[in-house]
Amino acid sequence: MDRINRPALTDRLREETALFATRHPGSAAQARNSAAHLLTGNGMNWWRMWPGGFPLCIREGQGAEVTDVDGNVLVDLCLGDTGAMTGHAPKGATEAIAASLYKGSSFMLPTEDHLWVAEELERRFGFSHWQYALSASDANRFAIRWARMATGRKKVAIFNHAYHGAVDEALAELDESGAVVPKAGNIGYGIAPSETTKVVEFNDLEGAKAALADEDVAIFLVEPALTNMSIVLPDPGFLEALSEACRDRGTVFLMDETHTISEGYRGYTGTHGIRADMIVIGKPIASGIPAAVYGFASDLAQTIESRYPAPEDEDALGIGTTLTGSAVTLAAIRGTLEHVLTEEAHRHMDALAEHYEAGVKSLFADLGLDWSVIRMGARVEFLYDNTNPRNGSDVLNSFKDYDLNAYLHVALLNRGFVLTPFHNMALMCPATTRAQVDAFHAAFREILEPVVGRD
Amino acid sequence: MDRINRPALTDRLREETALFATRHPGSAAQARNSAAHLLTGNGMNWWRMWPGGFPLCIREGQGAEVTDVDGNVLVDLCLGDTGAMTGHAPKGATEAIAASLYKGSSFMLPTEDHLWVAEELERRFGFSHWQYALSASDANRFAIRWARMATGRKKVAIFNHAYHGAVDEALAELDESGAVVPKAGNIGYGIAPSETTKVVEFNDLEGAKAALADEDVAIFLVEPALTNMSIVLPDPGFLEALSEACRDRGTVFLMDETHTISEGYRGYTGTHGIRADMIVIGKPIASGIPAAVYGFASDLAQTIESRYPAPEDEDALGIGTTLTGSAVTLAAIRGTLEHVLTEEAHRHMDALAEHYEAGVKSLFADLGLDWSVIRMGARVEFLYDNTNPRNGSDVLNSFKDYDLNAYLHVALLNRGFVLTPFHNMALMCPATTRAQVDAFHAAFREILEPVVGRD
């Protein structure tokens, strides 16, 4: 039952889009000029998907706020889609990174930070051995390679509609008949993903066991909760049972915390005490400097080290690129762990997210909207239905309401709030305040009320 | 005919390795402690390949010098294997990057630098449309995807023993029968590379034409000169003819300037006026901040844009990751182009590299060593033979003299000079001085003389 007043929505979307254009002439000019110099007018593909007809051009960000080139100040609940979960320009990390720049950024050699970071990561996340990468995508790619080396197997297993970045093996999905096909939008694959990848519905333990039964799966890339289309939480005991099943079948069990790092100080893995063979942590780990880390349980590290050729024989190709583990990335990770993503900061972010969640729930209730609100630590999503999704297929169409999406996002931008464009995610950073969340609630009410039908 | 006195080499290698351990106790301790916390004891795989038994642990770098944790100051001719071709902590770029950190590093939205950089790249390299990436590997991956979209084809062509980073499709080589097989050291491939990749010997125009004849090659990844095992220069007219052949067969012709950017201010492509459909530039482009750029000729850009789905329909998966094109990476690219890798700086680097080349040639002549010295702009390599290599197979074994490699590198490190460990590359940066190159020549003579046989 659509509780949205569609004629009102059409009118308001037109008005808000016009207002958006009026209030952002500088961003509009940047977008116009970019059309002749950047492919599809965008330096980065995802800008195309920002609502309003063109992306905001940002002049600077401080804490939970950004200022665009037209001087508009906005509360940023998108935070670079997790890349800026630290908040913009977080003081302790920014100073550490800047200092490291003046001492050289890239040597292809270790610095003292490499060991400090590995020790801190072990303390926090419990994995004994670490390596570095430039992105969580790269970390996943390298993890797949190490797992293939350790197991002598080739296949990769993933959940349907999970997110593992730009990794070829992970850009697969199930079609209606249950066959593995290229994910919609996978424009440039060279090999049918069914040759490399098994896809299982999230929360389907029997399906996962069936995929593992042939003992040809090197690694299961596990997104602890689905995060790329709303949030789908695991059933109680699901991840624990899957971890056991992987161990039974000799498959490397990897927790990809690319987004679930919002769950807390120790990630989803540590917070919930999930046993895993590997972990990947990217995005905010270096306060916006491109970097990721990945960790190995000690028995897996031993297996890999025992199979590794001597340095004079062979390099391991496909692992790392030249700037991987550079001095500046490690200084940035250290600064972030030491000063920004602390236990105390996560407590603050969690509490604020709870407050955000409660306010949005109460607003939906007031308006008679039976919409879901789901929280994972500092991250909160809402859906335009209440179907209690248990897997990616359940939520696939839940936010494909293009007009409603566009209206909510543009109207919020016009009132000074940035919500993640691809879905309806809000994220709290250490600098986000209760007053900002309260102001969001008020603005959200103001824009929702006029488009909700009162039948 | 081996002109090396092997017994003398064995003795000197032992002595220099012992001296190396004595002079670098802090680096040795860091390596020992890292064994328990970093996979294979290394945060990044390539550290394993540094000579001397453990990699130097670096405290800081300034210009062409690095200082290790034991206080040794070394002239850095490796420069992060091109990542620091800018020199360490280059002033203009460092200040620009630091300033950008204090204004926020990652928004998933454009800043004014995005357009500035694209315009400067067009001015310098001549390609009309640009996108950004975190590494040249990523840029190559994305280029492959765009080319597959534009051509509707799947296959990728590469040169035997060319370097394109960690891209799966490029980790292939020819075996003795001419079949495409996984590159030695490719530990974790999931698909036989022959399914995705055609491999051609460098400088073999007829071979390249044969690979293109079936019109199933989406893109030819072209390393303008082979750079990962010494330097193999293209025959006069080879790249021009290959470019024509690709155009005739509808294959996207990509110049991967990952290493050949040393050739000059406008890269190999611009310096030699090669027509290409795409170009990739990574490593030093952001003064050590992980970033890369890739450009499209306007007709290819138009083809892609015409085939691209509307934003409300589909995202293009596998292109970009969250921090791609972030504010700090673009500030770093801008700072580097504006202040560091200027035309004047490249003139200085070129002249010094010529001086380095002349001194090494003269030393080899004095010692009766018929060894090659090859230069590509600011980059100079030497080989332990003079076979005039024309392709990767010709040079495959030229520097597999493990003892000689180890001795030269360790003895140079003991005398305060860092040469690229995997091969014998020296690179000049804007801060390298003539006095440093002269001092290198003297040190190189001092260590070579005792191991050259006088028959």
Short précis:
2 copies of one chain form a homodimer. Chain A is an alpha/beta fold and 455 residues long.
SSE topology string of chain A? HHEEEHHEHEEEEHEHEHEEHHHEEHHEEH
> In one word, what is the shape of chain A?
globular
| Biggest sheet: strand arrangement of chain A | 4-12-11-10-9-5-8
- What count of domains describes the coordinates of chain A? 2
What pair of chains forms the biggest interface? A-B, 126 and 126 residues
| Secondary-structure-derived class of chain A | alpha/beta
Integer average pLDDT of chain A: 95
Low-confidence region ranges of chain A? none
Using the coordinates above, name the CATH class of the largest domain in chain A: Alpha Beta
Assembly classification = homodimer
Helix content of chain A: 25-40%
Reported for the largest beta sheet of chain A, the result is: 7 strands, mixed
- Gross CATH architecture of the largest domain in chain A: 3-Layer(aba) Sandwich
Strand content of chain A: 5-15%
Tell me the CATH topology of the largest domain in chain A: Aspartate Aminotransferase, domain 2
Give a quick set of tags describing it.
homodimer; alpha/beta; 2 domains; 7-stranded mixed sheet; 14 helices; 16 strands
Describe the structure.
By secondary structure, chain A is an alpha/beta fold. Chain A has two domains: 6-85 and 342-451, Alpha-Beta Complex (Aspartate Aminotransferase, domain 1), CATH 3.90.1150; 93-339, Type I PLP-dependent aspartate aminotransferase-like (Major domain) (Aspartate Aminotransferase, domain 2), CATH 3.40.640.10. Chain A has 14 helices and 16 strands. The first copy, chain A, has helices at 6-23, 25-34, 91-101, 112-125, 136-151, 205-212, 238-249, 267-272, 298-307, 327-339, 343-366, 392-395, 402-414, 434-448, and strands spanning 58-62, 65-68, 73-76, 129-133, 155-159, 172-174, 180-182, 197-200, 217-222, 252-256, 278-281, 292-296, 373-376, 379-382, 417-418, 425-427. In chain A, the strands form four sheets. In chain A, strands 4-12-11-10-9-5-8 form a seven-stranded mixed sheet, with helices on both faces. A four-stranded mixed sheet of chain A has the order 1-2-3-15. In chain A, helix 1 crosses helix 13, helix 3 runs antiparallel to helix 10 (327-339) and helix 5 (136-151) packs across helix 9. The first copy, chain A, is globular and about 65 Å long. The termini of chain A are close together. The model of chain A has no long low-confidence stretch (mean pLDDT 95). Chains A and B meet through helix 2, strand 1, helix 3, helix 4 and strand 4 of A and helix 2, strand 1, helix 3, helix 4 and strand 4 of B. Chains A, B: Belongs to the class-III pyridoxal-phosphate-dependent aminotransferase family. Chains A, B: Its EC number is 5.4.3.8.
